[in-house]
Specification:
about 100 residues, mainly alpha, 2 strands, two-stranded antiparallel ribbon
């Protein structure tokens, strides 16, 4: 995977993370960062690990600089959603008394 593909993954993770922060009611001030990181890790794993191990018979398909797009999108969104759900479940903001 090339540097341009990694840049796309990081940018997409940041856009999704900031979208979650500003379009929903966040449970924490750093929820966007957790969502961005988990989305990026999921997209990378989806492109590299899922395609190499689980879908090894999948030949062709849309690809960008070594990034296989469809598994990266699906895995990134699923892992990002899991990261968001875990953050909302675990994060406790201090309440003012």
């Amino acid at each position: 995977m090339g540097a341009l593909a990694i840049t796309v993954i990081v940018a997409a993770g940041l856009v999704i993370g900031l979208g979650v922060q500003y379009l929903t009611k966040p449970a924490s001030q750093l929820e966007w960062l957790i969502v961005a990181v988990t989305t990026g890790v999921g997209a990378y794993a989806g492109s590299e690990w899922l395609t190499a191990n689980v879908f090894s018979t999948m030949v062709g398909g849309p690809e960008f600089d070594g990034l296989i797009i469809i598994p990266a999108i699906i895995a990134g969104l699923v892992v990002g959603l899991l990261g968001d759900m875990l953050t909302r479940y675990v994060a406790f903001e201090p309440t003012s008394a």
